Amino acid sequence: LLGEDPGAVLRLLAPRTVFRRIDTTPPGADIFSGLYVGAFGPHGPELLQMKRSMWGAEAAGAECVTAFKLSGDVNVPSGMASFRAKVGREHRIDHHGVYPEELGVVAAYKGEGRVAQEGFANAHWVEGELLHLDGKGNMLTDGAELGFVWAVPGERRFLILFSRILLPEEI
User: Fold this and answer.
1) What burial class does residue 99 get, using C-beta atoms within 10 Å of its C-beta: 0-12 exposed, 13-18 middle, 19+ buried?
2) Tens digit of each residue's pLDDT (9 = 90 or more) over 134-152
3) Burial, 131: exposed, middle or buried (Cβ in 10 Å; 0-12, 13-18, 19+)?
4) DSSP class of residue 101?
5) pLDDT digits (tens, 9 = 90+) for 71-105
6) Would the pTM count as exceeding 0.90?
């Protein structure tokens, strides 16, 4: 059936699927821009795109980074923001003594992480911290450049590490 009509797949997906191109502009030296992969616990690895933007009027237009899921899971689907943080120098927070030295935290920024129940039900933001790591590849981080800590009320804080994905034209 599908072999005879190449457009059949698109017609089947069209009522529920939104297609968008992924911006593959090489991020250059900006650690807070580009494609990253992180292991989301039982959901497995997920691909995110980090983008710099402005936070908005409520924060006087503070510079921020937002991580959008390119591959989602049953809780937070593809296309939704996974986390965001204000990243200007003035928004750095003291991380000394908070994280083990082995983690290699270079800088930390206050942010918010998205949590939701299955089907994106009860989606809301919780406090979090974006961590810029040294990326040295020790046993703890395996070379990850970024991490985000979710502080879910009533649960433990949890950290997801992110490693940059380089596309063939960037290598």
Assistant:
1) middle
2) 988 677 788 899 999 999 8
3) buried
4) G
5) 888 899 999 999 999 998 888 999 999 999 889 99
6) no
